[in-house]
Design goal:
The protein contains four helices and two strands; from the N terminus they run ααββαα. By secondary structure, it is of the alpha+beta class.
Length: about 150
């Protein structure tokens, strides 16, 4: 969700990647994630499920800021990133962990997307070219404390 949001809203200021500790074996993103992205008009083109280890390997793209999202893995150690990026955590429950009625699950996915998109919009509107990386990271960390608007 965050990768799709930042790709769409980040203009040319950001290059977005997403990854996790447990990528799917087939590399396909979560079906409900794709469904809610499509429902709000966010392109899911070229999204794939990938391990964050991919971004710590030799030849990986330079990462300036890592924003973790899932509460379930917030305390797990991150890989050693080549550029030693700033790390920020935005706390969200993982909607994929919900079981039960499909509509309830879809509502949880939509709520999570709404919250992520709101913070990404604020981040994307920073004048990045005029700020040092640490200032962007500080702002991103501050967003973790801001309640998401309804």
């Amino acid at each position: 969700m965050a990768e799709a949001c930042l790709r769409a809203l980040g203009r040319a200021q950001y290059v977005a990647f997403s990854a996790g500790t447990w990528p799917t074996e087939d590399g396909l993103p979560d079906a409900m994630t794709l469904q809610v992205l499509e429902s709000v008009g966010l392109p899911a083109t070229n999204l794939r499920s990938k391990s964050w280890e991919e971004f710590s390997a030799e030849g990986a793209p330079r990462i300036d800021i890592v924003i973790t999202l899932c509460d379930a893995v917030a305390d797990e150690p991150c890989p050693v990133w080549a550029a030693h990026p700033d790390a920020v955590h935005w706390s969200y429950p993982d909607p994929a962990m919900l079981k039960g009625v499909e509509q309830v699950r879809l509502d949880a996915y939509r709520a999570t997307l709404h919250a992520i998109r709101w913070r990404v919009e604020l981040l994307a509107n920073l004048p990045v070219g005029k700020l040092e990386n640490f200032a962007v990271a500080e702002f991103a960390q501050g967003l973790a404390q801001v309640p998401v608007r309804a």
